[in-house]
TrEMBL record:
EC nos: 4.2.1.51
Protein name: prephenate dehydratase
Pathway it works in: Amino-acid biosynthesis; L-phenylalanine biosynthesis; phenylpyruvate from prephenate: step 1/1
Domain ACT: 195-275
Prephenate dehydratase domain residues: 4-181
Annotated keywords: Amino-acid biosynthesis, Aromatic amino acid biosynthesis, Lyase, Phenylalanine biosynthesis
InterPro entries according to UniProt: ACT-like_dom_sf, ACT_dom, Preph_deHydtase
Recorded superkingdom: Bacteria
Pfam families for this protein: PDT
Amino acid sequence: MNTIIGIQGITGSFHHQVAQEYFNQEFILDECLSFEELVDSLLAGKSDQAVMAIENSIAGPIIPNYALIDKNNLHIIGEHYLSIHQNLMALKGQKIEDIQEVHSHPMALLQCMDFLKKYPNIKLVEDKDTAETARRIQEKQLKGIAAIASKTASEMYDLEIIAPEIQTIKNNMTRFVIIKKENSFVPESEINRASIKFELDHKRGSLAAVLNVMSDCKLNLTKIQSLPKIETPWKYSFFVDVTFEKYEDYAKAKSLLNIMAEYFKVLGEYKNTKI
């Protein structure tokens, strides 16, 4: 029986590409047009695992997705990096001068803003998914409207690329995480990355003390992001990613942080994927 993999987007999207590369086996695709729908798919048992974008080298971390993972007690069991190539595409025969609107996911629009600023008369329209926008243009034969999506999407939905590689920074990487409803226990010998969350007492030096513990335990802090606690003004949750060479060093840090923090939670322990 094939595994069911949930993705944000449809066939031809970047999430679909990650699923193909990461799992490298036959699977059934569950297409979800929002990250909330993706989480619901996991919780309802419609999908066994899911692919979720978590940060981009240009636009930064997607903090709401960390919050979704945390709120729904999901588990990060792996990660995958994808080089993002954004292309402007439309119905065949059209040129850039014919385009009145560009539709795409807000992250894709943001990644291509330097190119789009050259055409101030073109209206930018945020949409749910890059590939779904490309499909809709073809299905409804929408003239004067272009999509920003992958080359795969242009081929799959028979659109013409009128401007290739329009992302502002050519080395544009997105990090995706693989999530499950239940934790998958990776052997300690393979674990060298973790995603954690903690909350601290609101007093001077509390964060510095935690960072010192991480340094003393030989953890490499790869990301730290604060998120306000809606129900408690002026208190914050910290979402942190760390890498390490020895699991024992991480285990020591984890036991200390569990004592130091008002609240401590592991979102995932998994294998670091080298770019």
